[in-house]
Structures are given as C-alpha cells and as structure tokens.
C-alpha cells in the first residue's frame, strides 16, 4: 500500500477537541456540586447526553480535511476517555476525600461510550459531506 493511500490520522486535533469537551463537561459538574447538596442524580441524567452532544461537533472538527474522518472522530472520543481516566487517577492521589467509585458509576461508563459514539457521528457527517 502506497503512503498516499493510508488514511490521514491526526492525533493533536482530537486531543485538543477532547480536552475542550472534557472542560465543557467539568464546568456543569462543578456548578452542580457547588449548588446542590447531592448532585448525583442530576449528573447521572446530565453528563451522558451532554457527552454525546458535545462530542458530535468535536468529531466533526477532527474529521474535516482528512481522508479518514470517522477514524479521527473515533480518536477524539477515545482521547476523551483517556483524559477522564487520567483526571480520575490524578484526583485519587491528590484529593484526600476523593471517592473513586463515584467516578465509575454506570451513568459515567455510559457517557464514555457516548463520547466515542458522538465522535464517530461527527466523523460520519464529514464523510457524508465528502461523498456528495
């Protein structure tokens, strides 16, 4: 296979997109923790759909201008998961009363899957546009 036939995979743009989306997910989380005594239920309903919604444009941005838009959208979603895991591991070591189990609730695991789905949908939108 010739070098020009290989799909163009970006690593930096999906990382930046995932970082921006993760910040976008942390902001409402912090706001709910600041205003509610126990925001768990609200976060369980808010974070998964928000992850999907925010990763669609992230995947779209990552897929633009590349021959493999779906793959680049997928990479954005995977970066989102990696950043969350890194943040969780950091918090576990840095914050004395951090509860690791609260970071792996079913709703958050669903959100991780939806990050990938959102990134792929964004990449598929680019691929569909390129096909027309």
Describe this structure in words.
- The chain has helices at 12-35, 40-63, 69-94, 106-131.
- The chain is an all-alpha fold and 132 residues long.
- The protein has one domain (12-131).
- Helix 2 (40-63) packs antiparallel against helix 3 (69-94), helix 2 (40-63) packs parallel to helix 4 (106-131) and helix 3 packs antiparallel against helix 4.
- It is elongated.
Please outline what is shown here.
The chain has 132 residues and is mostly helical. The chain has helices spanning 12-35, 40-63, 69-94, 106-131. Helix content is 76%, strand content 0%.
List keywords for this structure.
single chain, 76% helix, mainly alpha, 4 helices
Distance between the termini: 26 Å
Q: Radius of gyration from the CA trace?
A: 16 Å
> What does the average pLDDT come to?
89
Structural class: mainly alpha
What is the beta-strand fraction?
under 5%
Helix content: over 70%
Looking at the structure, what is the overall shape?
Answer: elongated
Give the helix/strand layout.
Blueprint lengths: L11 H24 L4 H24 L5 H26 L11 H26 L1
